[in-house]
Write a structure and sequence with these properties.
The chain is α/β, with parallel strands linked by helices. The protein has a domain at 4-182 and 220-246 and 285-298: Rossmann fold. The protein has helices at 13-24, 41-51, 67-77, 93-96, 98-118, 153-172, 194-203, 223-236, 253-264, 288-294, 302-317; strands spanning 4-8, 29-33, 57-61, 79-84, 123-129, 176-181, 184-185, 208-210, 217-218, 221-222, 240-245, 251-252, 270-272. Helix 1 packs parallel to helix 2 (41-51), helix 1 (13-24) crosses helix 8 and helix 9 (253-264) crosses helix 11 (302-317). The N and C termini lie far apart (43 Å).
Length: 319
Amino acid sequence: MKSSILVTGAAGFIGFHTSMNLLGRGDTVIGLDCMNHYYDPELKRSRLKILKQYKNFHFLEMDLCDRENLRQAFLNFKIYKVCNLAAQAGVRYSLENPYAYQKSNLEGFLNILECCREFKVENLVYASSSSVYGKNTSYPFAETHNTDQPISLYAASKKANELMAHTYSHLFGLNTTGLRFFTVYGPYGRPDMALFLFTEAILQDRPIQVFNHGDMYRDFTYIEDIVSGVVASLDKNYACEIFNLGNNKPVKLLYYIECIEKALGKTATMEFLPLQAGDVPKTCANIDHAIEKLGYSPKTSIEEGIHQFIRWYREYYGK
């Protein structure tokens, strides 16, 4: 078998789309996922079913915390690049189940770093998050801004990943690139994200929860634009980098809901609530660094991206 790219979290939202891109251009992809029940695993199985149609895809159901089996995978499949997208996701869930973040995001990531060091991989690209900016209120968020004040354990775990990767780059010459994702959305998206929750509730004539009384802005970024940055990072082999991958066009939450209503042809009933613990009122990415060094260029408007999601949602759920 020729050298392979390991994509962890391959049955997840970003991992699935990244794997599809790599497979489509002819790379051999080893997809790893523990298939946990954070959200309905049926959606993960649906993504996996599509990936398994490719002859150059091999799937391993495995937890990153299973150090010995992870080592064996690196040995068996001649892994030469790693795209680590596996993580316990969710800002709000980190308030309820903190130990899940310690296991997956810290112990699991350390195992990835150790395998990359031992097997001398060419490049490690890993998922960070816009949540690392925490209390920062300088907009747009730039990679040079201070990220020492996270306001959720999820954010703290992602900041820890960046520090761990920097250490391995310094000590062992491991090429690492961290990607701070900004509110990724699109077909096959996560059911715990706003677009999925709002769409489902509106179609079922249930009220949607609108936090901070609607005074929220998010730098929503379409999945295909995100994947273009992920794959460019894998190809570049930078020594030690951090990039924002966002859209650089923050959208007010109420306009986001308006776009969903228009795409569905239905009006939402809104329940206005205070800002939730762990949330920030606004995110906005400065993407100059990614434009310069990755050739990153997000192209999908919020209106088109939501339209594509709603079309997929109706087809997938028969609604």
